[in-house]
Structures are given as C-alpha cells and as structure tokens.
Amino acid sequence: MCSVDRSISILKDAFPDAFAEGRIDVDVLRQLLGYLVDDRPERYRLTWNGKGRARDVVQAPPVGELRPCPEESVDWDTTQNLLIEGDNLEVLKLLLDGYGGRVKMIYIDPPYNTGNAFTYRDHFRDSVAGYLQLTGQANADGRRLRADAEISGRYHTDWLNMMYPRLDLARSLLREDGVIFISIGDNEVANLRIICDELFGEENCLGCVARVAKKTSNKGAYFAPSKDYVLVYARRAECVAPFMDAVDPAYASRFTGRDDRGRYATVGLYQAALDPRPNQRYWIACPDGSLAIPPGEVFPDEAVDGAQVKPRSRRDRVWRWSRTSYLARKHLLVFKKSTRSPLLTPDKSPSKWNVYTKYYLEDRLNDGIRPRDYLDDITNDLGTAALKSLGMDDFFEFAKPPELVRRLMQWLGDRDGIYLDFFAGSGTTAQAVLEQNAEDGGNRRFVLVQLPEPCARDSVAAQGGCHTIADICRERVRRVIVRLRDQHVPDATLDLGYRLFKLRG
Description:
The chain is of the alpha/beta class. It folds into two domains: about 45-245 and about 370-505, Vaccinia Virus protein VP39 (Rossmann fold), CATH 3.40.50; about 250-360, no CATH class. It has helices at about 5-15, 25-35, 50-60, 90-100, 130-135, 150-155, 155-175, 190-200, 250, 325-330, 360-365, 380-390, 400-410, 430-440, 460-465, 470-490; strands spanning about 20, 25, 65-70, 80-85, 105-110, 175-185, 205-210, 225-235, 255-260, 260-270, 285, 290, 335, 355-360, 375, 420, 445-450, 500-505. Helix 3 (about 50-60) packs parallel to helix 7. It starts with a helix and ends with a strand. Mean pLDDT is about 90; it is low at about 125-130 and about 145-155.
C-alpha cells in the first residue's frame, strides 16, 4: 500500500460520510470539518518552487524492486537486520508495505546544505552514473566535478524538494509511539523545523537539541562554528514516554547521605528564584523548637508549625513545597545549622537553621533523569575515533559518533523495535544498534539505506576496497560484527548479521 492509499484509508475510517462510490465528496468533507477548513489566501506556511511536485512524488507508486543478495550478507537465514543499497526515496516507498507504522525510531543525518554537500535528486530510473551526471557531480564521461557553491548547494529550494517527500514517507513508517531524530546544521535548521511542523504537526515537536560538534574551530567569518542540532518529532507525542538519561557515576557520587531507605542527596527547600504561590509561605518547626520561614514582609497570624499566610508581593518568598506537601512529607526534611541562614524567625531575626529535602539515588536509578536539550560530551572526534578503531581511518569524512545515536536510543528506554536510518553514510546507526544490544541485551533491529555513490578513485576508501559509500557502510557493519563476535561468543540471543538488498529499477 502506497502512502496516499494509506492516508485515504485513514480518512475513510474517520469520515465515512465523505465517501461515495469509492470517491471523496469534497463538499461533504468540508462540511464535516467545519471551522477547521482554512480558505484564506494568506496564512502562515512555507512554500517554494517545486513543493507541489514534492507532494506528487510521495503519491507516485514505486517503480523499483529490492534484489536480495544473500551471498553478500551475514547470517541471511536468521538475521532481522537490513542493509539496502539504493535511492532512499524509492526504498522508503517499498518499505511501506512491510514496515509501515512499525518503526520505533528513525535517525538521519541528511546533507547540511553548506554549499558543497551532496544533494539527492528524484530520478530513480537512472543508473548511478547517470544520477551523478544529473546532479552535476560528474560530466558525460563520468568524471567527478566540483560543485558550484553558488548555483547548486546554496539554494534552499533544491534541498527542500529533496527532504520534503522523504520526511513525509518517514512519518508513515513510524509507530504511534515512534520518534524521528534529525541531525542538521545552521543553514537549514529553520526550514527543516517548518516542514516538520507541517508534516508531523507542531504539537508533535518534542524539542531541538543543540550539540557541541567540535571543541575548536578556526573557520567562520564572525563566529567559529562548533555546533549542530538534533530536531526531535514524534508520530504522536501523547504516546511517547518522557525521555530519561541514565545516571552516571559522577552524578551518583553526590548522594552522600544514608538512611534506612538508602543513599540520598539534599536540596534546599527554600530557593530565592521561586515565584510566590498562595499556599507555599508557612512556618516550619526546627529541631530546637524554633520556627523558620523564608524572608518577606508578611507573616502568619499564628506562630505555630504549619501556619500559613498568602504572599502579597515578590518580596514575600516561599518554600518549594505547598503546605499540604510539607505536612505529608516532614520525614524527608533535613535541618542544618547555619550562621548565614536567609530564613527568618517570628521576631524577624535570622534563623539558626537551613532546611533541605532528601531525594534518593534509588529513585533516580529507577526513573532516570530528564536529559538536557544540549549535548557537550559527544563531539565529532568520537566519530573519527570509532572508524579508526575499526581500521577504517580516512574512509569517510564527518561520520557521526555512534555514541550520539546510542544516547538517543537510551532516551527512548526501549530495548526492542525497528531502528531506521535512510541516510546511512558510513553505517554509524548500525554500529550503535549492535553495540547497544550487546551492552543491555536488547533486541533492536536496524534498517539502513544508502545510495551507492562512488568514492574517488584515489581515495583511501577505494584503495581499501570500498568503491562506493554503500561499500563503506557494509564493510563497517561487517567489522563491527566481527569485533562483537570476538567479545560475545557464544551468544545465541545477539543478532550479529544483516541481509543485503540492492535496489533495481
């Protein structure tokens, strides 16, 4: 079933009255949708030359087929992992039948459109040689040409026409609780966000993560570029559990207290930055019988534990907990003597105590901690190091670190499911899936798609036997498998193989 057929089927289930004799009655559909129909000639949207054709491309049926290559695969008969060589637009259409609505996570690292990046064109019937000629990367004799940054790479239109249909298809492949992570740079992050809002729905945007890509840089006219982004969208946000980071040893070392429940750390119950709330200003009884309250100008009428007063202005500070929470959770309080406490007593003098609350390591280990929306510990040099560790130095430029994809997988908290990358490049996502499964016993399966773009004849990759980017991807996955088998033999539960398919038009 193609993408448009799937969409029509969903529409028919939702609005059966709008269908007659197998066709859509647009007038009835408009009536059913009511105020949701927007006929205004001017409204917020992103448009460009070719957007209509980009939509048409999605609806066009696939014209190719996937040719199995068991002789070039590893564990063909048992593995559930897939490597596919071919144009990703055509492959995504072919994947809809078997994988539509089944993919847990998509990670892609598409061209950043910096002026000389490789940009796909939708011309699937061509040979690879013809494809490269069409895209201006080779002449009629097949010789590679230098891209003209002013007429090919810097036009947003070409990039948008390339990305739009692929993201449309990607959404159809996601599960209800599926998530897509997209690495992107400054040049197209704004446009990417707008088209993702259109295709996935603004309400399904889970965030934009900034990542420190490199610690030092001497490039750039005004700033030294050192970051990129990961845009995060869900198929349906309400179906996605909150992301959680694992607790690292450095964080765990903060939990120096111990009681019958286990190790704990403390945090102040009073914090100056808190906004005043009506039920959060009250007396707290200290160990010596004295009372304490955050600084302010109004005080409870009664000088007894739990007596409260409504703040009148921001000068009247409050506790983190409501009065109700305090009365129910007194056992979690920790009192520490202080000569510089900001808290006040009934006679307006400084208190001799500071008040803290406990939070336990076990809870953090079980629940994790909410990840930050920036990453400063996964730089690009880790991607280079990963290839070097496999003996593939200089085979591929700008490979993403496997640690990045593994971090994203860990945020999802799911050890099963299908993980798709249709801009596979050197195969970073496959390595991340295999290594994460080996570490936590998961059963994740990868599907990677990569165009067999030729490597330069004098490149290190070609000299090493990899004549296309797809060859680099496959060789990397093979070497990761060999290494993991050496480390985890025998482990019958670990899927260390892949089935190779090649797109044939």
